């Protein structure tokens, strides 16, 4: 009788318990609840929201993170803007459910969004967020110093990333929305909250 061997088995890293995919119409209610939890009831009064109100996100750049149990646990969208005469995208809001902190959901959403933006030929991405967090993705304040937002903002939080070298060269002036307009009735419905919001982690406004 041959003795049973206790051969060591290499540990296989578990697959991420979430997936990144294009946003669906069925995500809207959960997305809005997540954003309410993350940014508060006054989020529609924030400076960056002025660049999104009444506008459609850039095509292909509304992404959702879903947990393996089916819950929506993260969201990010990007929007067409003119950055002082330079065509660019404004990233935000980016939010992650608090239950999924530490799983890399925010980083995965960022990486996918930037990859899609680059593949679609966009030249630059701008956001308002914490420099230490976004530096890992290449965002810096080097070429946003002459840009402004339509409202109060902290200068050191206005960051940019060039997907094409020189895309933000000479960018100066007010950042303004350029995305396609959406019907007011649809925009109003999107802002309505229909369920209690979960705790969440805010990233980009």
From TrEMBL:
Chain segments annotated as transmembrane: none
Taxonomic path: Bacteria, Pseudomonadati, Pseudomonadota, Alphaproteobacteria, Hyphomicrobiales
InterPro entries per record: Acyl_CoA_acyltransferase, GNAT_dom
UniProt xrefs under SUPFAM superfamilies: Acyl-CoA N-acyltransferases (Nat)
UniProt superkingdom: Bacteria
Gene3D superfamilies, A to Z: 3.40.630.30
UniProt-recorded Gene Ontology molecular function terms: acyltransferase activity, transferring groups other than amino-acyl groups
Biological source species: Bradyrhizobium uaiense
Annotated N-acetyltransferase domain residues: 18-160
Region (Disordered): 183-205
Keyword annotations from UniProtKB, A to Z: Transferase
Record protein name field: N-acetyltransferase
């Amino acid at each position: 009788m041959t003795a049973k061997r206790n051969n060591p088995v290499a540990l296989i890293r578990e697959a991420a318990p979430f997936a990144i995919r294009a946003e669906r119409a069925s995500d809207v209610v959960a997305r809005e609840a997540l954003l309410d939890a993350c940014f508060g009831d006054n989020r529609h009064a924030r400076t960056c929201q002025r660049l999104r109100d009444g506008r459609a996100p850039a095509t292909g750049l509304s992404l959702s993170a879903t947990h393996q149990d089916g819950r929506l646990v993260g969201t990010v969208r990007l929007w067409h803007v003119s950055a002082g005469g330079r065509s660019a995208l404004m990233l935000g809001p980016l939010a992650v459910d608090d239950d999924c902190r530490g799983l890399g959901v925010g980083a995965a959403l960022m990486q996918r969004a930037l990859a899609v933006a680059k593949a679609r030929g966009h030249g630059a991405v701008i956001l308002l967020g914490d420099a230490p967090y976004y530096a890992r993705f290449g965002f810096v304040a080097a070429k946003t110093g002459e840009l402004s937002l339509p409202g109060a903002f902290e200068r050191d939080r206005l960051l940019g990333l060039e997907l094409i070298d020189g895309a933000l060269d000479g960018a100066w002036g007010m950042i303004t929305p350029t995305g396609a307009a959406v019907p007011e009735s649809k925009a109003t419905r999107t802002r309505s909250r229909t369920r209690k919001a979960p705790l969440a982690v805010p990233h980009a406004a």
